[in-house]
Amino acid sequence: MKITIIDGQGGRIGRTVIEQLKKRHNDLELYAIGTNSAATASMLKAGADYGATGDNAVIVNAADSDIIVGPIGIVFANALLGEITPAIAAAVGASKAYKILIPVSRCNHFIAGCAEAPMGDYIRCALDKIEALL
After folding, report:
1. In CATH, 3-133 is 3.30.160
2. What is the distance between the alpha carbons of residues 21 and 28, in angstroms, rounded to a whole number?
């Protein structure tokens, strides 16, 4: 099963997801795809097995992933302060992978029915869903 974690900015969300997944399932192979090199480096330091950066890395890896995890902005063109290009948003959206999107309120959107909670709670919820899919 190919699990791809996509993040931008400093990679904090992706880093936390990877750290926690590796604690729960050290045998999983995790692909860290950053929109910038800092995000990729942060996720690799957290224990990702593979890492790549940029639009093409997202396009290639989203195409054959089973699960994609990341902040909700990865499906919105120009989100994450412009780091999510239209090509990235389209690749993630078009992927047949099961997408686990972590709510972040900085992307100029509101998700009806999603309660305000600390980021740690959202990440725990995402990890629980990944485990249910394994």
Report:
1. no
2. 8
